[in-house]
Known about the structure:
Blueprint: H1 3-8, H2 18-34, E1 44-48, E2 54-56, E3 72-74, E4 80-82, H3 91-100, E5 106-110, H4 113-118, E6 125-126, H5 131-136, E7 140-143, H6 151-161, E8 166-169, E9 174-178, H7 181-200
Parallel strand pairs: 7-8
Antiparallel strand pairs: 1-2, 1-5, 2-3, 3-4, 5-9, 6-7, 8-9
Amino acid sequence: MGGEAAHARGFAPHYQTMENLKSEIVKFAHLMYQKGYSIATDGNLSALRDDGNILITPAGFRKGEINENTLVVINQKGEKVEGTEEPSSEKWMHIYIYSVRPDVKAIIHAHPPYATAFSLQMPREYEPILPEMKMFIGKFGFVAYKEAGTLELAELVKEKAKKYNVLILQKHGIVTYGKSLSEAFNNLERLEFEIKIRALKNLFKFQL
């Protein structure tokens, strides 16, 4: 279930106001931090505005501490057009995903512990064991390690995003996306839950 399946689900309704969009990013950034999917200043979130510009979290902030005034707007060239802070160093990863997935309106990059640990030994793609994951997400894509914030990483992510709806980055967490921030966050939680269950299943071996 890759890009084509996501297209078939259709587009999300546009956010009514810029304030609503900012509020959504702050809400899910705080939730991501509270649930331990991001520590210190790691992770980033973005949403695509109606005008084609991107609202993105700032660099150097804990996700539990950002507010609407710290968010930044960049254009598709990576240039800051609104805001007092600097945009996330992973901005190119966001820009490149939007460029190849017109169905995507929101992106989350996080470092949930089970998925991040799994990234150290993950194969080229992963077939979920839970039926709900197969239904909602499909196979997980794998992106080989490149230094965070580089164009090299963004290019690899762009190519894999064409085929997969969630990505695990080697040694560097995950990227999920969707037609809304809510869908992107749901995909984050589903991915982490799948890998957690995979890790725990060997604890429950019974002899019949």
